[in-house]
Write a structure and sequence with these properties.
This protein is mainly beta. It contains two helices and nine strands. 13% of the residues lie in helices and 53% in strands.
Length: 190
């Protein structure tokens, strides 16, 4: 069953080391997501997401403009970052989501460590689900190779990027109605 993205309660954060010392964090907007989620069999679920590359926000406009430039995301030519799951493995109460990540037209496999935070009824009687996932990628694998050597050794920007995702989804109302009818039919047949 497909669930709808709740963008107001979802976030994607990327962090990298600056000058090998401090951590700089930025957020990106999840433009859309398709989540075929089965709460009874989560390992049979699938997810596809589209991220707005131009939405990068680190809190410093000059840095954000550089990140949007051809040195990094090249948003004029590659406005979206995409992820498509290929399989999901259960690891106890956690999951490993394998998929293809495309940045700047380059697609590489990635694995995310994920968990289901919970599935609850909201105040309107519908169901909401929340998920958390993270991974670390080497940005150079996607052609994001710009850097500057530091006088004391090392690099201005780390190669490794930590990616953290908090995703909220809503069960569409028509599916909620279908499930209610199915439960009522099953209850009356029993």
């Amino acid at each position: 069953m497909e669930w709808q993205l709740d963008p107001d309660h979802s976030s994607l954060t990327v962090s990298a080391k600056h000058m090998m010392l401090t951590t700089v964090r930025g957020t990106l907007d999840i433009a859309s997501a398709t989540l075929a989620f089965d709460p009874e069999h989560p390992e049979q679920s699938r997810v596809e997401a589209v991220i707005d590359a131009a939405s990068i926000d680190t809190g410093v406009e000059q840095r954000d403009a550089h990140l949007r430039s051809p040195d990094f995301l090249d948003v004029a030519n590659h406005p979206h970052i995409t992820f498509r799951s290929t399989r999901i493995e259960r690891e106890g109460d956690r999951f490993r989501i394998h998929g293809d990540l495309t940045i700047r037209g380059v697609t590489r496999p990635v694995s995310l460590d994920a968990r289901i935070v919970g599935v609850v009824k909201d105040r309107h009687g519908g169901r909401r689900a929340a998920f958390s996932a993270e991974t670390t990628i080497n940005r150079e694998d996607w052609g994001l190779t710009w850097n500057m050597a530091l006088e004391q050794g090392g690099w201005l920007v780390s190669k490794d990027l930590k990616v953290e995702i908090e995703l909220a989804a809503l069960e569409p109302a028509e599916q909620q109605g279908e499930q209610t009818k199915e439960r009522e039919t099953a209850a009356s047949a029993a």
